[in-house]
Design a protein that fits this description.
With 477 residues, the protein is α/β, with parallel strands linked by helices. Helices cover 30% and strands 23% of the residues.
């Protein structure tokens, strides 16, 4: 591999720096570091070099599949039927129609029969934007044999007939569906899109991962299809991918625990699950989007005791006083500023007034001493970390209203939410000699970029020393 040297860069606020990469690491930094014969030269012309961004919580398989799905996030209830019919007409006869991001009264009013009246001539499945619910039409129910499924998540009417609603049955659904419709090209284009945002690592937070899933993801990394590093949440009692299969870029993450309000465990029951993970020397990542979930999680973590790397995912509603509880527990909160932009108007409509100021906090958690990091939760939230940073500073919804405006942070803090390490998202990585060459190269000095955070600021991304350019970079024009 030819060595790479970055010149005329800003590093840690110092202009005029050179940065030499070798063996996947940063090997030298300083004003005296310049090109040697045969080296590839990246001339940043004053642009900043910062650590690559890490998306601390997303669902890769779903995100890649979502690229071929009908997005319903911004479809008004009255337009839902027309959007689905149009999408069906554009697809081959009889093929599956998959839609995602549904919500609101138009979707909630639908069951299998209602969906049949919209699209009845092909199997259809629609995912609620929470990710917890799929709605199937009759053709889909028949094709998959859902009537014979025994899982409690299959909602049935009084006569025992499936209503079309499947709760938390992602794995069951995936196993029953025809061969995966995603190709290696789909994976590659998702990876490239993330790299264009400066993303050098992903934490995949999908629960109940089995070893086959981990091995397949590691193979995609080994083959260079996925370029980013992967940190895979894996059940405590499973091996996960061995690092040797992933070019040293795949690591094992926390044990994910999903909580669901209708089936919320007691604090003691949850503490037992957490304790089991800790006995396997694994941290936990507890999904908490409601106040009830946060309260039981905090209770259980206090009972079980902490383990380095324990996390709360989302912390969507944090009641008064709980920031300090979380600080005392030593957990890191992984939040999604992008939800404010994408769903904030729905929160303002649907969340009780007294809870509005408790939504997706950031500033108050940090003030209380809680480590906070950010993520997209793609495909359930938008992938672009720069748009999410901007939202973290403004707390603005799509319509321009604000949600919990007091939770806004400055742009440097918002950026830092993406600069933590995979294992400890609150511990910041740095551009330093000996550190991995996972870098985001910007078009301008950092202070200038942060005045208006945007993905347009990303000029190139470096992952383990490999340069992935958003546009050609180089001294020659
Ligand atoms: Zn998630």
């Amino acid at each position: 591999m030819t060595a790479v040297v970055i010149v005329a860069a800003e590093v840690d606020g110092r202009p005029g720096q050179g940065v030499r990469l070798g063996d996947g690491k940063v090997v030298a930094i300083g004003p005296e570091v310049g090109p040697s014969p045969g080296e590839t030269v990246l001339d940043l012309r004053g642009g900043a070099v910062i650590p690559g961004l890490h998306d601390h919580h997303l669902h890769l398989r779903s995100a890649v599949a979502a690229a071929g799905s009908v997005p319903l996030n911004h479809v008004a209830s009255d337009d839902l039927a027309a959007v689905l019919r149009t999408a069906a007409d554009e697809r081959p006869a009889g093929s599956w129609l998959r839609a995602i991001g549904a919500g609101g009264r138009g979707f909630e009013a639908l069951d299998r029969d209602g969906l049949d009246r919209v699209v009845g001539n092909r199997p259809v499945r629609i995912q609620h934007r929470s990710g917890a619910l799929w709605l199937l039409n009759s053709a889909a129910i028949d094709e998959l044999g859902v009537a014979g499924w025994t899982e409690a998540g299959v909602e049935r009417d009084a006569a025992g007939r499936p209503t079309g609603r499947l709760w938390r049955l992602d794995d069951r659904l995936r196993a029953a569906l025809p061969a995966p419709s995603t190709t290696r090209a789909d994976w590659r284009s998702f990876s490239d899109r993330a790299a264009a945002f400066g993303i050098t690592g992903f934490t995949d937070a999908t629960p109940d991962r089995d070893d086959d899933d981990a091995a397949e993801l590691a193979a995609l990394v080994a083959d260079g299809v996925i370029r980013q590093r992967l940190h895979l949440m894996t059940p405590a009692d499973r091996a996960g991918a061995s690092d040797s299969t992933g070019r040293g870029r795949v690591t094992r993450g926390a044990h994910k625990i999903l909580l669901d309000d209708p089936r919320l465990p007691s604090g003691d029951q949850l503490a037992a699950v957490i304790d089991t993970a800790h006995r396997h020397r694994r941290p936990v990542a507890v999904h908490c989007v409601t106040a009830d979930q946060l309260v039981v999680a905090a209770d259980a973590l206090a009972t079980a005791g902490g383990f380095p790397g324990d996390r709360i995912e989302h912390a969507g509603v944090v009641p008064p006083g709980y920031a300090h509880v979380l600080a005392d527990l030593g957990v890191t909160v992984v939040t999604q500023p992008g939800f404010i932009a994408a769903r904030g108007d729905a929160y303002r409509r649907d969340v009780p007034a007294e809870e509005q100021s408790w939504l997706y906090p950031c500033a108050s958690l940090r003030a209380a001493g809680v480590g906070v990091a950010a993520s997209s939760d793609a495909p359930f939230g938008p992938l672009d970390p720069w748009a999410a940073m901007a939202t973290a500073t403004t707390r603005r919804t799509a319509s321009g209203a604000t949600v919990a405006a007091g939770e806004a942070v400055d742009a440097m803090t918002a950026l830092a939410l993406y600069l933590g390490s995979a294992e400890n998202p609150a511990r910041l990585r740095t551009v330093a000699v000996g550190e991995p060459a996972d870098l985001c190269l910007l078009r301008a000095p950092l202070a200038e970029v942060l005045r208006d955070p945007s993905a347009r600021a990303v000029r190139a991304t470096v992952i383990a020393g490999d340069v992935i350019a958003a546009e050609p970079v180089g001294g020659a024009r």
